[in-house]
Structures are given as C-alpha cells and as structure tokens.
Specification:
The protein is α/β, with parallel strands linked by helices. Helix content is 32%, strand content 13%. An eight-stranded mixed β-sheet has the order 1-7-8-6-5-2-3-4, with helices on one face. Bound molecules: S-adenosylmethionine (SAM). The site of S-adenosylmethionine (SAM) has 18 residues, from α4.
Length: 284
Amino acid sequence: MGASVLASPVPAVRKRCHFPFGVAGIREYLRAQGCKGVPVSDLLEHASSFPSMGGTMNGPLLRGLAAKVPDGLAIVELGTWLGAGTAQLAIGVSDRPVPVTIHSYDEFRVNRTDYAWAGIHHPELGLGLGQDTRAMVAAALAPFGQDVRLHAGSILEKRWTGGPIGLFVDDLTKTPIPFHHALVTFGPSWVPGVTALVLMDYFYWKKAERWRRDMLRVQTSFIEAHASHFEPIDFDYAPIPSTRAFLYTRELDFARLPPFKVRRTLDGRAAGAMRRVRRLLGWA
Ligand SMILES: C[S@@+](CC[C@H](N)C(=O)[O-])C[C@H]1O[C@@H](n2cnc3c(N)ncnc32)[C@H](O)[C@@H]1O
C-alpha cells in the first residue's frame, strides 16, 4: 500500500490580479504595486497558461507533494523548460509561513527537440533554435512570489550544496548518464521517510522505439533494483501516463552506486547520430 497525496492548503484570498502568460502581461504585473498575495484561483489560472510538456497535467500531484515538504527542506526540479511544472510547485508552497526554496535546472536554451515540439504545439511563442529562455521563464514565474532559483547549463556540470531535499522532480534525465549523475549528485541529500520523488519519464520507454527501450528504461530499472528503498505514492487522479511517484524510505549508499551499464544501446550524442542516419536512409 503506497503513501497518499493530500490536497494542498488553499492560500488566503487578498487581492485580485490576472497574469496572462507572456512577457507583456508580466511586465504589467511587475509594474503593479501590492500584488503579492493573490487568490489561488488566479495563480492556478496563470499556471495553467504555461506551455507544458507535462507539468501542468501533473499539477495536482506536484502541488500536493510540494505543500507537504517540511520547513527547511528544498524542492529540486530537473527539466524546467518554460516553467510549467515549476509554476505548479510554486503554488504548492504559496502561503507557507517559512518560504520553501525551489531549485530548477535546465539548459534554458531551446534545443532541437524543444524547438520541434514548440513549433507544433506553441507556434505562437515564436521560439528560435538556441534561444535563451531563462529571463522569459523567470518573468513568468515572478507573479507566484516564491523563492525560485533557476540553474542554467548542462545538468552534467551541476553540483548540489543546498542541503536536504524534501521533493525531487525529474523531467530531464531519461538516459543512463544524466540519471546516474542526478542520483549521485542529489541522492545523498534525500531524507529517508520524507523525500518524495516524481519521475516524469518513469514509463517513457514504453512508447519509445524498440532499439531505444533498454536505454530509456533506466529509471524503472533503478527503482526495481532498489525496491526496498522506495515506496510507490498513490494518487487518485490521472497524471501523464509516464509519471510515477515514490517515497524514499531507506538510505541508499549513492557513493557506491556503480554507473549504469548500457548494453546493446546508445546514449546521448550517439543516439542522435543514429536518428539522423535513420532519417537520411528514410527509415524514420
Ligand atoms: C521534458 S522538458 C521539461 C518539461 C517541463 N518539466 C514541463 O512540464 O513543461 C526537458 C527539459 O530538459 C532540458 N534538458 C535536456 N537535456 C538537458 C541537459 N543535459 N542539461 C540541462 N537541461 C537539459 C531541455 O532543454 C528541456 O527544457
């Protein structure tokens, strides 16, 4: 039987403000005075206007778990993109007497995958390949009034010195090398019996081509191999199908975690090169 998620507390209603997504609307907000405490309905409306690759659909889960993070513990999110999941986390911790810091990691540069995705689903954003998105995301998140720190750059270069982590949301490390790096970097700061994990790509491999499945199964394989350290968290609504959440229950020695073996599969750049070859040959 898994742990269950409670609904987040509803912050008090103070002053009505509306924040459409987009820098123009946000600038108006920043110019406005006294819009700090806003009704949760407006925060939800603003959060739901973020272009999303899953964070908005997972909103109830993210808000519920963020609301339960004990004082003094941080929230870590890998894979900000334009801030859809971060916005939900920010609502979850709104109105807390002791602020909860949200650390969100991303390249904050539009890569080929994001560019293609945004071109189909959000052409109105006009995102350019290689565009720096950090300032845009920071502005969109400002209305929540929370301590959100955006860490730009490759996740493989990141280290963690931010203390114990109460909630760890991973929407970035689908493959063995980044996932292993995330575990050895952030895992030692997880607290047994307290830290919740949201793995948004846990079942991503199920919809992938056969030749990539071993590589993309890394999160599922890790949890299965360490099942006595994690307990599934049940939720009573449907988040995106690839998402699973777990409570970290028993200490793991991350320093002794061997790098994942990738047999018969390719990682990172090699997989990209393979895709290009398949496209050139007309196989994809
Ligand atoms: C699936 S998207 C995140 C979606 C977001 N959580 C949402 O719900 O809308 C993954 C993000 O990870 C970023 N990313 C991919 N590889 C990365 C790396 N090695 N280092 C840092 N960021 C990376 C991408 O630029 C992209 O913004």
